[in-house]
Amino acid sequence: MIEKFTECLSRLLPFGGYLSKLTVDQNQAQISYKKHRAYIFLLKIWAIATLTFGVVLNMKNVIPSISRGKIIFENQSLKFMFLLLLMSVVIISLWEFLHSRYSPIEKWKLEKLLRGFTEESDLLRQHDNSFNQTKSIKWLYSISDSLIIIKLMTGGHVNSEMEEDIARRLHGYFVKETRVSWVLEDRRIKDRLIMMVFSHEADKRLVIEDILSLRQSNELNIQLTQRLSWTIR
Fold first, then answer.
1. How many other C-beta atoms are found inside a 10 Å radius of the C-beta of residue 65?
2. Largest CA distance in the chain
């Protein structure tokens, strides 16, 4: 439980350039079903609370007014509960939008993309045994300096041939789902860990017209491209 909470916290702002974790062990249908059940449960709690508050707060008004033939009902509690319901709907809708693939926050958008790619690429496969357990994979990602660094820990159940092709498939999935420019800058595979570096603009050659424009220090720093430099001590 603590690990899940820590993992969820790592995906929230303001942890902009820090490493975020995402464990995927359920498909989209399971996640949607659990969300639907949770929303229904919260709606039932709201209805029970609204009815309870209405009865308790109007008990002193309703009983004396019966003898007069005119029931006095205080509706302030209803107004408050409906306002609370409206605020909850707005907050939940905003949360769902910000964590969708249309989110203006790239970090939250990336989470949705990684979940979608996990399912579309069939990275989650069920064990063929009586317990019918579900395997899981872990994504590690960070966004900083125009670079998106993504690491995939497959858990050992993805074969070597598929590991070699994941970077290419993930790149194609990003382009298909977002329709923006994606560049695969680097890809490395080591010990069941696949590291991929993406950007939205290809790196460009740097032209030095004057040697005086180079930064002077005790180290020789040669700027190879806009993002790549070579330091010689």
1. 14
2. 99
